[in-house]
């Protein structure tokens, strides 16, 4: 299986719309409730995601699996943090862990980040996997009027220093 990270601007709007309007995907995206993710909205959305690259030096990628757009995510700037997002079309849910490891490798080696966060909505009840990946609970936040639990994953090199 070949997994590539591309910029979102290289992906067709129709492919992005298909993922961001999928009913199974939307169940885990409370900030998308009530959003009409049409062509016009998609253009603005991609522009905002691309602007993060210019402003912060990182931003979301498009995930391309065996030449097909599978979803988007990576590291987004969220309130001063590098926040991990991973949004996949249900056909690709089985490759999420592989994509996750590619993201954290970039975060902790190429970018030398001290930690990354993830924000999970209250609908996300199964958290065992998050803890097994090394994340620790790090409080709650409210975005766009929605409540999220925040979890943090420390760079192993930084974590060693914190323990010493």
Automatic annotation (TrEMBL):
<dbReference type="InterPro" id="IPR016181">
    <property type="entry name" value="Acyl_CoA_acyltransferase"/>
</dbReference>
<dbReference type="GO" id="GO:0016747">
    <property type="term" value="F:acyltransferase activity, transferring groups other than amino-acyl groups"/>
</dbReference>
<protein>
    <submittedName>
        <fullName>N-acetyltransferase</fullName>
    </submittedName>
</protein>
<dbReference type="InterPro" id="IPR000182">
    <property type="entry name" value="GNAT_dom"/>
</dbReference>
<feature type="domain" description="N-acetyltransferase">
    <location>
        <begin position="3"/>
        <end position="164"/>
    </location>
</feature>
<dbReference type="Pfam" id="PF13302">
    <property type="entry name" value="Acetyltransf_3"/>
</dbReference>
């Amino acid at each position: 299986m070949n997994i590539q990270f591309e910029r979102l601007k290289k992906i067709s709007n129709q492919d992005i719309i298909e993922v961001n309007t999928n009913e199974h995907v939307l169940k885990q995206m409370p900030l998308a409730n009530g959003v009409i993710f049409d062509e016009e909205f998609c253009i603005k959305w991609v522009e905002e995601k691309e602007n993060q690259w210019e402003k912060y030096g990182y931003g979301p990628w498009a995930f391309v699996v065996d030449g097909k757009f599978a979803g988007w995510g990576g590291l987004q700037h969220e309130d001063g943090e590098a926040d991990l997002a991973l949004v996949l079309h249900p056909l690709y849910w089985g490759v999420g862990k592989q994509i996750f490891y590619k993201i954290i490798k970039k975060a902790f080696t190429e970018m030398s980040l001290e930690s990354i966060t993830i924000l999970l909505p209250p609908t996300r009840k199964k958290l065992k996997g998050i803890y097994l990946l090394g994340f620790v609970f790090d409080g709650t936040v409210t975005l766009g009027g929605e409540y999220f639990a925040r979890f943090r994953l420390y760079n192993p090199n930084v974590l060693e220093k914190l323990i010493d």
